[in-house]
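The data layer described in this paper is built around a simple, fixed record for each protein. Such a record has a labelled line for the sequence and another for the backbone structure tokens. For reference, a complete record is included directly beneath this paragraph.
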Amino acid sequence: MPRTTAPRRRRASAALVLIATFALPAAPVASAATEPAPAAEAAAARTTWALEPATAGGPDGRVSFRHAVDPGAEVAEHVTLTNFSEHPATFEVYAGDGLLTADGQFDLPPTGTAAGAAGSWIALGDATGTLAEPGATQRVEVPAGSAVTLPLVVRVPADATPGDHPAGVVAALATDAGAGVAMDSRVGARLHLRVTGDLAPALAVQDVRTDYTPSWNPFAPGTLRVSYTVANAGNVRLGATSSASAAGPFGVAGTTAEGATLREVLPGGAASGSVEVETWPLVRLGGAVAVTPAVVGDDEVTAALAAAESSWSAWAVPWVQVALVLLLVGWVLAVRRARTRREAATQRRIAAAVARAREPGAPA
């Protein structure tokens, strides 16, 4: 979708701010607004632009690039940069390696970051069709209300490993290096690139951590929070559903809870998850975290998807229940002691009455 940049006045001493937020994998990527230099601000201009997959004739309706390529092969593509603004604008177009943000959204590294993986396989062309070296940035001027279509070529190395290699192409609004104010404002398109060969989907559960919080109600179970990391140890991107089980010694009071769904984990990447399980504090708890992989979107994975699991154990001392038992025992002992004292006092009164009755001169 197009991106709009609204001018606002900022102090010249403002620090460099970088905000880049990509959209979902099935949509073009986008980022935050750009603070223009004072000269551009004086023009009271608003910059709106889009970057879309295309043919040589212009945008073709795709929301991302998707290709399966043999090692050593090339793929020719086009991307159209459209300036919807009422003034000309200059953009920097470049390719980068794909990654996921902490909240699971697809993104590319900040502007100026050199690509080291699939992003380095992409060579971008200029408006005349001349290709630059892979990794180079194209500076493109687009007139107001116009579009420029650029060629690009994906050159897969002959020794590229099979599987998914995420990347993307970005168009960032160019800024004057001496303006004193700069923000990274960009839009882009994702490249789903799969190198042909043996696919090995695999997830692993790592770094399982537990934290038990007892209930203040001694007649209610507490909450066990099981946190973990799902690592993609295979060569294709996968989604995942998770669950955690918990039980006391010998499987007593076993229970299971479902965790959040991970929409996507890239090969070599990892994502964090957690599950909250309601369980009784049975001194020593044990269980497992199970992760079931799933195919993402329109991907095709014919290899078997195997679930991953990791066991855990944790202490869950029933302090609230122990305190309640101690209170009950103390109350019972106090009641018995009071009863014993009352009985002893009664016996003393009876004995004293008997002794008085037996004294000489006591009434018959």
